[in-house]
Specification:
Blueprint: H1 2-10, H2 18-21, H3 30-34, H4 38-48, H5 56-65, H6 81-113, H7 118-140, H8 156-173, H9 189-201, H10 208-227, H11 229-239, H12 242-267, H13 276-291, H14 301-314, H15 321-341
Organism: Exophiala aquamarina CBS 119918
Protein name: Transcription factor domain-containing protein
């Protein structure tokens, strides 16, 4: 959906609402789309039905909350890759609305009553994480080894859905630490640097939910090392969709900010003991950086990660936004390095 892509790229509020716009039927069975002629299509309609009895709202409700508002025949829950794409986009937008409302009301009620409402926010995060897990199960049931790129026969739409899912993880668990997405539209370098410095300075939560989101986001950064870093730098844009470029942008912001938070806490002597998940993530990131001989040996791991990931955008001119993302990631790398050295 265009509105989701704009939200991913520039932070624009989605114009789609599942409440008012979700009462449309789910896309028809894949076999109807694959029919080679009208006669075959009519034969399939007699078996499959002309349209689904399931609405997009029903599908999103089931993914989000584990149940539907009304009974629907079992066969309606078998979705084509295109139908999965529709649902994942709709869930992503719904989670945007839910998390925005959650952070706002938690902040306002906390100010009004002089106390934190972390328990209510935590409950929302639990439900969100469960919904994202159901999305992930829906996508990966087609292939267990999802860390590699998927071939045409294996379902590029589902591979794209994994990219959307990584964006949704980032969107759900970064909270108020999100970057100013409009920096991609700014022309003045000083304004962009100011936005990056503000992003680096804003505290980032370190909890189990954030660690899970970082782990999911980092999955996208692992794919090039498994599929061939040099090859993907030159060819990914020829076969991958723009969702992967946008997901990589989100992933880089979340992962590098999380690493920077740990580095700052360590330098200041306030570092909490790393959890097992956090230790494994840091080790995996170090392994990725060790394979890339082309990056500067900066003091900050966050800076090196940003520079490493920028290299996948520098030569990608299929979409106009990607070289700009690469340039901004390199500037972000400098901001991380300067911030750490100034402590």
């Amino acid at each position: 959906m265009l509105t989701n892509s704009l939200a991913m790229t520039y932070g624009m509020p989605p114009s789609y609402s599942i409440v008012s716009d979700g009462n449309i039927e789910m896309p028809g069975d894949q076999s109807l789309w694959d029919a080679t002629n009208a006669s075959q299509w009519y034969d399939l309609v007699n078996v499959k039905g002309r349209s689904s009895l399931l609405s997009v709202r029903d599908a999103v409700s089931t993914i989000m909350y584990g149940s539907s508002l009304r009974g629907v025949p079992e066969e309606c829950w078998s979705w084509s890759p295109f139908a999965c794409t529709v649902v994942i986009n709709a869930v992503s937008i719904q989670i945007w609305h839910v998390t925005q409302g959650s952070y706002f009301f938690d902040e306002m009620t906390g100010m009004a009553q002089g106390q934190s409402h972390g328990s209510e926010e935590s409950q929302v995060l639990v439900q969100t994480e469960a919904a994202l897990s159901r999305c992930r199960a829906l996508i990966t049931q087609a292939r267990a080894d999802h860390d590699y790129t998927w071939t045409e026969s294996e379902g590029p739409l589902l591979f794209n859905c994994l990219a959307l899912l990584r964006v949704t993880y980032c969107r759900a668990f970064t909270g108020n630490g999100c970057a100013d997405r409009m920096m991609l539209l700014k022309d003045n370098r000083e304004d962009i640097i100011a936005s990056l410095e503000d992003f680096v300075a804003v505290p980032q939560e370190r909890d189990e939910f954030t660690s899970r989101a970082v782990a999911r986001a980092f999955e996208g950064m692992v794919i090039p090392s498994k599929a061939g870093t040099l090859l993907l730098r030159k060819t990914a844009a020829l076969t991958w969709s723009v969702e992967h470029a946008l997901a990589g942008w989100d992933a880089a912001l979340l992962v590098t900010k999380w690493v920077h938070t740990i580095e700052v806490e360590t330098v200041r002597g306030r570092g909490r003991v790393l959890s097992e998940r956090e230790e494994q993530l840091i080790q995996n990131m170090g392994d990725i950086l060790a394979e890339d001989e082309g990056i500067d040996q900066a003091t900050s791991m966050a800076a090196r990660l940003a520079e490493h990931w920028a290299s996948f955008y520098d030569d990608t001119w299929v979409w106009g936004v990607t070289p700009r993302i690469g340039w901004i990631l390199r500037e972000l790398s400098n901001c991380y390095e300067n911030a750490l050295l100034s402590l």
